[in-house]
Every structure is written in C-alpha cells, then in structure tokens.
Amino acid sequence: MAKNKIHPHLLSSSSTSSSCSEEKEKYTVWMKSLVLNGNGCTIYDASGVVVYRIDNYDTKCSSQVYLMDLKGKVLSTLLRKKLRVNENWNGYKNERVKQDKPWFQVKKMSKVFNKGGGFSCQVTIKGDSCQAFSCFRIQGCPQKSEYKIIRGDGIVVAEVTRKQAKGGVMLGNDVLNLEVEPNMDKSLIISLVVIHGLMSHKI
Predict the structure, then answer these.
(1) Is 83 helix (H, G, I), strand (E, B) or coil?
(2) Is residue 184 a contact partner of residue 20, using CB atoms and an 8 Å limit?
C-alpha cells in the first residue's frame, strides 16, 4: 500500500502532549514505518496528521522501542522482559535512563487464566499519570486485529478496529482505527497499542 493512499499529510505534525484530553480522540494506526523498507508503525490523528511513530528500521519485534512524535522526540521507552512462559513489557516516560522506574508494566496472561480465549494482558500503572485507575486490561479476539483496552472497573477506554475506506471496503489488517475515550492519557494508550503490535509480531 502506498503511503499517500492512507493520508495526504505525511509531512504535517501536531502537538503530542501526554496530558489527558477532555474529548474523544480518533486515530488511524498504520503498522508501517515512514522509513523506506523499515519496521514500525505510524499514527495519524483524525485530520490525517502524523502525531506518533515507531521506527525499528531493519529490526522487527525489537526488545526496545521508542514512541516518538514526527520530529523524533521520544515520548516513551518500551522494554521487553522475556520470561520463561510469558512476555512482559515495561514502559518508561520519555527516553529511559538506568535509574528510572517503570511508568507502567504489561503482563501477558497465561492461557490457563484467560478463560475467554484470545489475546489478554494485564496493565499496571506504576508511575505518575493523569489516570484515576491503576489497572487496565488489553482484551482481543482470537485471530483478529481488533481489541479493547478496559479499565479496572470494566469500562472500555479505547478500542481498535479494522479501518474501512469511504466506499465501505475493508482495508488491510495493518490499517486500524483507534478510538480513545475522554480523560485518558494519550501517550499511555498509544504505548499500549504499540506493545500489542509488538506482542502480536506486527511491528
């Protein structure tokens, strides 16, 4: 898929503040890098402006990635912790240094405890955040790109679905819609979407 067929404003940029928005936000997530032949993903806002990006260059499923704005400013650092059974991730605000403590942790749930089947992760907020809740869950359907981010009280705070063209034609499974509910930390939600893509071997 050619880059200019997804959004026309590839070279535009906008504010990527990590503060909570009072309005519902809509994004397009493209599981491709802006770097030619690179691995990563690109996130556009509702106007087609690039607001977030991941560039792994020639490495797919990297164990350390950086969520950046279009200009390359690091907004969060994501580190994989490979355990014997499950794959866990730590998220850090901005560019991590050794003394930093995790902002959040993502733990993939074992199939034994995931009675609903599909993809399921537990998210725990460790550091400062504008979120009132410290626990979330990523819940997806088997063999599908669609999933939800659910707050500790069961409320859906973000949802990822396949994107359709204006004529109703379903685009490829690497082009997704992301809707984020009001009062959510945008950088946190985007970081969780990126981790889902890494765990699913799509980035």
Answers:
(1) coil
(2) yes
